[in-house]
Every structure is written in structure tokens, then in C-alpha cells.
Amino acid sequence: MDDLKTRGLVLLGCGKMGSAMLKGWLEGGLSPDAVTVLDPYPSDWLKGTGVRLNTELPPNPAIVLVAVKPQMMGDALPSLQALGDGTTTFLSVAAGVTIAKYEEILGDKTPIIRAMPNTPAAIGRGMTAIIGNARTSEADLDLAQTLLEAVGQVVRLEREDQMDAVTAVSGSGPAYVFHLIETLAAAGVAQGLPEELAMALAKATVGGAGQYAEEAEEDPAQLRVNVTSPGGTTAAALAVLMDEATGFPMLLERAVKAAADRSKELAG
Ligand SMILES: NC(=O)C1=CN([C@@H]2O[C@H](COP(=O)(O)OP(=O)(O)OC[C@H]3O[C@@H](n4cnc5c(N)ncnc54)[C@H](OP(=O)(O)O)[C@@H]3O)[C@@H](O)[C@H]2O)C=CC1
Ligand SMILES: O=C(O)[C@@H]1CCC=N1
Question: Where is the Pyrroline-5-carboxylate reductase catalytic N-terminal domain (predicted)?
Fold first, then answer.
């Protein structure tokens, strides 16, 4: 992290993902002076952080974090080509954009780390998978990992082609869980609960169960069994949710496949 303080970090694109990570870093003690953000329409929140905004780049930043949409990459990245001299590490969070694509633009001397984070990084509960190109040293990976661990957990991948499935599970995954909360609350309303109460029950249940699944010694299947009294209410619900033709397993398999397929398409 000392390298980041002295050489600085550049953030290209500060939308939903970039700001989730920046929020985590600033709350974790990274000085706003060490961060230069390039974003054409900065939010009021970003303007209030005190970071260096749309101004000249530091001469030799330790890391450039690329957080623009995959479709914008061709427009946005060439402006940073001068930093592709091999001393700055590029860390990309863009879905689908391969390391080879970066090497085409930045040259193959550049250490490039492809990462897939998720938005719970905003509260320090992110999950990020990373993999580097051939120019990435262990020290580069360690620096990226330290930075990313400031906003949650980090796993290292063995192969870049695992990234499509990772994107479909943990990158997009928070959206599936938020949708579960929305639909669980709506189902409670359909059973006669007031909206506010149903939403409070749904949020606390999903949040509590998620944390319990992470912390408990038992696996999620056993935790599910522990809730399910024989002949009781949970068994009645699970008969619907575990139905082979229409239940969660089939739905999630289709949803995760659709996301992974889209990640492959974005690679072009
Ligand atoms: N959202 C998520 O949960 C996750 C997103 N990602 C990846 O993160 C990246 C960003 O996604 P997300 O944050 O959702 O998207 P956003 O659209 O919210 O953020 C992208 C930001 O980049 C800005 N931008 C556009 N063009 C340029 C440019 N030329 N130079 C600098 N900044 C530019 C956009 O400005 P403007 O809006 O004005 O165009 C916007 O603020 C994507 O590649 C996505 O795949 C990865 C994991 C999770
Ligand atoms: O929807 C997307 O394409 C991005 C990548 C993972 C989460 N959001």
C-alpha cells in the first residue's frame, strides 16, 4: 500500500462498481490525494470525496483501475496507452474483456490483472477473483490483492477462462440476491403483510442467512435441513422451490448460463 500512497492510483470510470470500490478504500483509510479519477460526468458524491478529479495523471501510478463498461473500452483505454510502459499495473474489472484485448491496446510489456469484483465491496463485503498476464509479477498480484482485500475477499484463478463463470456467479450474483429479497417481500405482501414489514423481514432473513452460511461449520445443505421440520411449513415451500422442472436449481442454472454466455459474447 506504500507504493499506492507514493505513486498513486488512477481510476478510469467511476460509476456503480468504481464508486463501490473507491468508497471502500476511502473508508479504509486510503488518502483521497493518492487517487486520480477520470470520469466525464462525476457524481456529487465523487466531487465531495476530495480525490483528484479529471486532472493530469500522476507520472508513474502504481495501479490503473479500469472500471468503464466493456463497450466503452475502445474509446477510453487508448488515452492511457502512455502508461503501458511496464511499470504501471493495469487492473481491469470489465466483464468479458480479455487480457489479450488489453495487450492489443497497451502492449504486452504491461502487467495486466483481470478482476471480477462485486458491489458488496461498498460495505467491505466484496468478493473478487483475479488473474494476471505473463508480465504480472507476484509483487503486482500481491499489491492488487491488498487493494482488493480492503473491500472484501480475494481469490486467485488458475485459468482466465474461469472468469465467465465467476462473473455469472459472484459478479452478477448480488443482483440475483437483491431480486430474491424483492420477490420474497412481494410474496409476503401477497400473504397479507404490510409492505414495510414484509421488506424488513425479507432483508433481515436474506442478510442473516447469508452471514450464517458463511460463518457456520455446517454446509448450506445441512443448514437448510436444520430449518426443515418434517411435515412442516419449510418442507411445503421447498417442495415448490426444489421442483425439478420449475424450481430454483433449473432457474439458477439457466440464469447463470445466460450470464456466462453473455460474458463470452462481450469478449467479442
Ligand atoms: N456493476 C457491477 O455490479 C459490476 C460491474 N463490473 C464491471 O465494471 C465496469 C463498470 O460497470 P458499472 O460501474 O456497473 O457501469 P457504470 O456505467 O455505472 O460506470 C462506468 C463509468 O464510466 C464512465 N465512463 C464512460 N466513458 C468513460 C471514459 N471515456 N473515460 C472515463 N470514464 C468513462 C461512465 O460515465 P457515464 O455514465 O457518464 O457514461 C460511468 O460513470 C463494467 O466493465 C462492468 O463489467 C464488474 C463487476 C460488477
Ligand atoms: O452486468 C454486468 O455486465 C456487470 C458484470 C457483473 C455485474 N455487472
Answer: 10-83
Q: Extract the runs of DSSP E, i.e. beta strands, from the chain.
A: 9-12, 35-38, 52-53, 63-66, 89-92, 112-116, 126-132, 152-156
Mutate to test the pocket of ligand 1, among 45, 54, 69 (most ligand atoms within 8 A of CB): 69
To the question of whether residue 127 is assigned a binding role by annotation, the answer is: no
Does residue 110 line the site of ligand 2, with CB under 6 A?
no
Neighbours of 171 (CB within 10 A): 25
Q: What is the pTM of this model?
A: 0.94
CA of 90 to the centre of ligand 2 (A): 19
Collect all residues with Cβ–Cβ distance below 8 Å to 219 and sequence separation of at least 6. Answer: none
Structural domains of the chain ordered from first start:
2-160 (3.40.50.720), 173-266 (1.10.3730.10)
- Give the ipTM of the model, two decimals please: 0.97
The best mutation among 68, 90, 167, 176 to test binding of ligand 1, ranked by most ligand atoms within 8 Å of the C-beta, falls on: 68
Cα 57 to averaged position of ligand 2 atoms, centre (Å)? 27
